[in-house]
């Protein structure tokens, strides 16, 4: 494909609205009456076409709604209503959501709070809709997300306008039990005090512990210093400090003022994404031992004295404390130790919440309650059923129902049935009455309303029949249906019990994830021994270390802090993320990443919390603990995915909201129609003529009850969330994390996958293959050493794979290992994503500051650095490329495939480095699998074109689908262009430079080994970074889940469509009808069957052709050339019918 300028092809504004600023668009919903067919809705939509200020108009014939997105400055909501009425329909304004104003005021001016509430009593989509409607017109509510499966509501609101308690009260007013779980306000610290650098300072002259105390005392309370660790054995101090407040040189001067010789060895500046360290976290704890309000004040003052505490609020009544702190400054254990040192006891409330959520996920409470309700109701229902039906029909000698009792018209059988029915109707049925009343009070009927209508109608009819028999001669035995009341409630209780058991199984994967972390961890009391070992090597004996350094201590996992050294013995679960410092072992990571084979770990290897150590002994340094661990993030992602709703579910919930009123109407219509027909027809169905049926009224009542009880919206409401919950759980077990139902639904429509190159198609561990210093810098050994020192120090703060590789290679050239630090200081570090970095470097034993630029040729020229054509030509030739005379780029040649990075020092060209990368083993197989699924593949990279083409040839991507030398903004533009061309685009990347494109794509897919920014921007996260076959697997899983959702919805709708005619008595002329008890059993079975259908997703496995072995079996060698056989789908009109496609590849 020919090169072109991406910047000139950015998406153009929509023609509608005359290109008005999209921030001015309002969304107006109008209720429209009088529409009867598709032409009505089409006429309304046509009315708004071409109207100035209208972006879109969508009309639903089913819901009688019109949603118009329009520029509120050009067209107001009242005008929208008038335009609809002008077409001959009755229109009523439902709501208008005005656009949010741009937030130009400070962030604190509009603080948003996320409140999570546990909601008990929801049974179907109508319940979730009822909860959401409670917040529809409430000022200060930003969003409401209610999960039927999780029994939770997540409300984002303005804390100044709506309190957490108001949210709880609102949900309870809708007829549900609500309990506050958490309410968290996000804040950004305004200062940069937590942007700490780590400086290592060599200290001479220390002889004892008093010396180390003197150094620490001299740095105590100094502004800008976060922590100080002094090692007497190493004669060094490791200090965390804010470089904007105090520099490493100033710290060295303070130490010298204490009487010691000090020199700066190295300074590690905060990384490019250190801004995230300024975020606070909320810690909720329970505090025991407080006597009065004085204790509260004492604890708050104590906490506020700690460095890193933003705020502390302790409540004596609830014995709870809410502490806002900076995790980059202090850890949770420090807070707990401070409280306990003051004479109080503190416990984490997160444990209580986790246990409560595990119980909620397993539906333990609901299963226990509904099992008890079923057994209780069955105890009374069976005798009623025997007395009313079985004994009179089959055991007539035992029939005592016709025995009269004292009063004429009162029969023993009816009296016993009444007494047995009361505990069921008003004991077990009390929860149905309470829920139905609360929902009706707010005009939002639920399934419980249908249950109460059916059972109450049967109970009242039976009681009235008994009264009429007593009051009116000849006092014959009345026709009662007490068995209908008791058996209905029994069947419904059985259904709810089985349904909740099945629901509990849907969350097995999430429950297992939440239970992976061990409760306790073993750490060293003083972790400095490992710092000493790292710096001294293994030559030092254990006797040279203080005995306290090897003392062990057990602590709760939630109290681990960054920097702790954790001891892992064979078989131990790993409590947090970290880096191995000692020992070798194999670790089973299958429960987190889905990787089947144990992974070997040695010093320097990364560990993931929740995985299991093998047979070896390991020590590791904690790098992420608590909520920041990868396991916690996985659990959070899975929870969010299972809480969010897919667009297809929203429609089902809307339908469920109208379901109950429709069913009640249908039941009344059934009753009225059959009452009329039974009196009008000369030859009505036989059941109306039978004496055993109780007469026309009894038959019509039973038909009405059957209709009301049979039609259940629960199955419709459970069809989507159960499938999403099971599917996302299975995905998590296979290392595929999906961030919600909407991402799942979009993933099923993907037509094109765009890959980043570095770190995605390639391993991302680049190595320096060649290097060259200019004549100025290779004139002596000293200058060569200085060149590597400057280059290595400059790349120390870089997070890009190329930067890390250069830094490690520079250390090797200086005779250092990768864990060592190059002596010197760094300042004024800046990175231009996709271009290069700039830094001010002061090497050790040198007072001169050098300005270093490292990047591509364009980056050097942008910084006014002269790069001669012959110098670029030499570099490109060394990398295997032939320069293009017009653009200075390199074209493909036999040796292409390396990346060239140029170096400039103090504004002058100083040399270049050529780096090579390794293509991932399964990259070409992933491309083949995607093509077999009918998905197009492209590659976009910021690297040079020769390198990009070499990788594309190796993995089988067509040259026309390769874009090279592309900046992050241009990647984003390119994705936008592909979307405009009609493709549903999935972008796969792992770096900060990929995040704009990931956010712009229809589906963003990030590798878990990538940066936090990329993972945050993505919709799907792949935990196994080396497994590109997980990309087609994730798309296959999404399609499998949505096939199951469609099947569930079809089953739920078909169940009602097929069964309803039987319940309504349509087949009465043929002697077929549905008894109310059978209708109740069928209703219970519908929900259980839908949940069981979703549980079948647990058996999902990727197809055999989506593995390397499976694909290899489909590859043949013909005439020495490699052929790729890629299946295409059949049957769709207009598609190519060829079964196989030949794709030639070239080896690098």
From TrEMBL:
GO annotation terms (biological process): copper ion homeostasis; intracellular monoatomic cation homeostasis
CDD domains, A to Z: HMA (cd00371), P-type_ATPase_Cu-like (cd02094)
GO cellular component term, pick one: endomembrane system
Record organism: Arthrobotrys musiformis
InterPro entries: ATPase_P-typ_cyto_dom_N, ATPase_P-typ_P_site, ATPase_P-typ_TM_dom_sf, ATPase_P-typ_transduc_dom_A_sf, ATPase_P-type_domA, HAD-like_sf, HAD_sf, Heavy-metal-associated_CS
Its membrane topology: Multi-pass membrane protein
Protein name: P-type Cu(+) transporter
PROSITE patterns the record matches: ATPASE_E1_E2 (PS00154), COF_2 (PS01229), HMA_1 (PS01047), HMA_2 (PS50846)
Stretches the record annotates as Disordered: 1-24
Keywords from the UniProt entry: ATP-binding, Copper, Copper transport, Ion transport, Magnesium, Membrane, Metal-binding, Nucleotide-binding, Repeat, Translocase, Transmembrane, Transmembrane helix, Transport
Annotated TM spans: 373-395, 407-428, 449-468, 480-498, 655-676, 696-719, 1049-1072, 1078-1097
């Amino acid at each position: 494909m020919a090169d072109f300028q991406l910047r000139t092809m950015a998406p153009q504004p929509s023609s509608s609205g005359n290109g008005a600023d999209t921030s001015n668009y309002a969304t107006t919903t109008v209720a429209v009456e009088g529409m009867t067919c598709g032409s009505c809705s089409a006429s309304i939509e046509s009315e708004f076409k071409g109207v100035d200020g209208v972006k879109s108009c969508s009309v639903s014939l089913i819901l009688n709604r019109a949603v118009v997105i329009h520029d509120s400055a050009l067209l107001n909501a009242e005008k929208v209503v008038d335009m609809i009425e002008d077409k001959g329909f009755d229109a009523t304004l439902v709501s208008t959501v005005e656009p949010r104003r741009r937030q130009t005021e400070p962030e604190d001016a509009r603080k948003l709070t996320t409140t999570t509430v546990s909601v008990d009593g929801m049974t179907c989509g109508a319940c979730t809709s009822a909860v959401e409607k409670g917040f529809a017109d409430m000022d200060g509510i930003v969003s409401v997300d209610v999960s039927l499966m999780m029994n939770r509501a997540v409300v984002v609101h303005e804390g100044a306008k709506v309190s957490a308690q108001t949210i709880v009260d609102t949900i309870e007013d809708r007829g549900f039990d609500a309990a506050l779980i958490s309410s968290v306000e996000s804040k950004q610290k305004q200062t940069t005090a937590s942007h700490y650098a780590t400086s290592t300072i060599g200290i001479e002259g220390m002889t004892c512990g008093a010396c180390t105390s003197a150094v620490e005392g001299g740095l105590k309370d100094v502004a800008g210093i976060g922590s100080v660790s002094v090692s007497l054995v190493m004669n060094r101090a490791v200090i965390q400090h804010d470089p904007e407040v105090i520099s490493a040189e100033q710290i060295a001067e303070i130490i010298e003022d204490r009487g010691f010789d000090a020199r700066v060895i190295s300074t590690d500046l905060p990384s490019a994404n250190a801004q995230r360290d300024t975020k606070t976290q909320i810690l909720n704890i329970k505090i025991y031992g407080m006597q009065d309000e004085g204790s509260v004040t004492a604890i708050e003052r104590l906490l506020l004295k700690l460095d890193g505490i933003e705020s502390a609020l302790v409540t004596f009544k609830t014995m709870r404390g809410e502490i806002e702190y900076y995790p980059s400054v202090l850890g949770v254990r420090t807070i707990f130790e401070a409280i306990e040192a003051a004479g109080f006891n503190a416990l984490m409330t997160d444990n209580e919440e986790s246990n409560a959520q595990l119980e909620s996920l397993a539906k333990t409470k609901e299963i226990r309650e509904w099992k008890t309700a079923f057994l209780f109701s069955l105890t009374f229902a069976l005798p009623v059923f025997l007395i009313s039906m079985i004994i009179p029909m089959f055991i007539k000698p035992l029939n005592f129902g016709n025995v009269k009792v004292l009063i004429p018209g009162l029969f023993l059988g009816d009296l016993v049935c009444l007494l047995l029915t009361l505990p069921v109707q008003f004991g077990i049925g009390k929860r149905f009455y309470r829920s139905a009343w609360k929902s009706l009070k707010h005009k939002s009927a639920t399934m419980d309303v249908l249950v109460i209508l059916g059972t109450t109608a049967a109970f009242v009819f039976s009681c009235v029949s008994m009264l009429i028999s007593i009051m009116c001669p000849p006092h014959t035995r009345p026709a009662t249906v007490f068995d209908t009341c008791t058996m209905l409630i029994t069947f419904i209780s059985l259904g709810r019990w089985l349904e909740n058991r099945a629901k509990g199984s849907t969350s097995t994967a999430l429950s297992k994830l939440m239970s992976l972390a061990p409760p306790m961890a073993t750490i060293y009391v003083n972790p400095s021994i490992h710092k000493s070992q790292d710096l001294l090597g293994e030559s030092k004996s254990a006797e040279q270390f203080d005995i306290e350094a090897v003392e062990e201590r057990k602590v709760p996992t939630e109290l681990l802090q960054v920097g702790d050294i954790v001891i892992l013995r064979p078989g131990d679960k790993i409590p947090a993320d970290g880096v191995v410092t000692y020992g070798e072992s194999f670790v089973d990571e299958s429960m987190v990443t889905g990787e089947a084979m144990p992974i070997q770990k040695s010093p320097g290897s990364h560990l993931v919390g929740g995985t299991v150590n093998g047979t070896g002994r390991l020590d590791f340094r904690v790098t992420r603990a608590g909520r920041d661990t990868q396991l916690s993030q996985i659990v959070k992602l899975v929870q969010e995915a299972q809480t969010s709703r897919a667009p297809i579910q929203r429609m089902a919930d809307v339908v469920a909201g109208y379901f109950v009123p429709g069913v009640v109407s249908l039941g009344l219509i059934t009753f009225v129609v059959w009452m009329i027909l039974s009196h009008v027809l000369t030859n009505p169905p036989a059941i109306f003529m039978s004496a055993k049926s109780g007469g026309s009224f009894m038959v019509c009542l039973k038909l009405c009850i059957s209709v009301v009880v049979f039609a259940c919206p629960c199955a419709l409401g459970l069809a989507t969330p159960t499938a999403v919950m099971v599917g996302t759980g299975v995905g998590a077990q296979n290392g595929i994390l999906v961030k919600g139902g909407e991402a799942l639904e979009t993933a099923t429509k993907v037509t094109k996958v765009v890959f980043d190159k570095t770190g995605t198609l390639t391993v991302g561990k680049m190595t320096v293959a060649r290097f060259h210093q200019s004549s100025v810098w290779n004139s002596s050994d000293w200058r060569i050493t200085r060149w590597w020192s400057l280059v290595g120090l400059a790349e120390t703060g870089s997070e890009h794979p190329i930067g890390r590789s250069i830094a490690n290679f520079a250390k090797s050239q200086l005779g250092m290992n990768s864990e060592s630090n190059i002596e010197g200081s760094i300042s004024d570090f800046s990175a231009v994503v996709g271009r290069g970095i700039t830094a001010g470097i002061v090497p050790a034993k040198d007072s001169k500051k050098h300005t270093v630029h490292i990047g591509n040729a364009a980056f050097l020229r942008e910084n006014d650095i002269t790069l001669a054509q012959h110098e670029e030509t030499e570099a490109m030739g060394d990398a295997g490329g032939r320069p293009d005379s017009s653009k200075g780029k390199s074209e493909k040649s036999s040796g292409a495939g390396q990346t060239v990075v140029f170096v400039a020092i103090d504004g002058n060209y100083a040399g270049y480095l050529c780096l090579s990368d390794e293509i991932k083993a399964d990259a070409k197989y992933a491309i083949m699998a995607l093509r077999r699924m009918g998905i197009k593949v492209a590659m976009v990279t910021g690297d040079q074109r020769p390198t990009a083409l070499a990788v594309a040839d190796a993995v089988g991507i067509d040259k026309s689908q390769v874009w090279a030398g592309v900046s992050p903004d241009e990647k984003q533009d390119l994705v936008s262009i592909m979307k405009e061309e009609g493709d549903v685009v999935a972008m796969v990347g792992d770096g900060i430079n990929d995040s704009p494109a990931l956010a712009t794509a229809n589906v963003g897919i990030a590798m878990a080994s990538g940066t936090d920014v990329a993972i945050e921007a993505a919709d799907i996260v792949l935990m196994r970074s080396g497994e590109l076959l997980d990309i087609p697997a994730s798309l296959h899983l999404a399609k499998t889940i949505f096939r199951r959702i469609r099947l569930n919805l079809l089953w739920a709708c078909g169940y009602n469509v097929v069964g309803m005619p039987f319940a309504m008595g349509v087949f009465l002329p043929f002697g077929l009808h549905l008894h109310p008890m059978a209708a109740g059993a069928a209703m219970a079975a519908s929900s259980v069957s839908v949940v069981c259908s979703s549980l079948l997703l647990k058996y999902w496995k990727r197809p055999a052709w989506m593995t390397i072995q499976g694909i290899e079996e489909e590859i043949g060698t013909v005439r020495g050339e490699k052929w790729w056989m890629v299946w295409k789908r059949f049957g769709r009109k207009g598609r190519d019918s060829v079964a196989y496609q030949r794709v030639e590849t070239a080896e690098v």
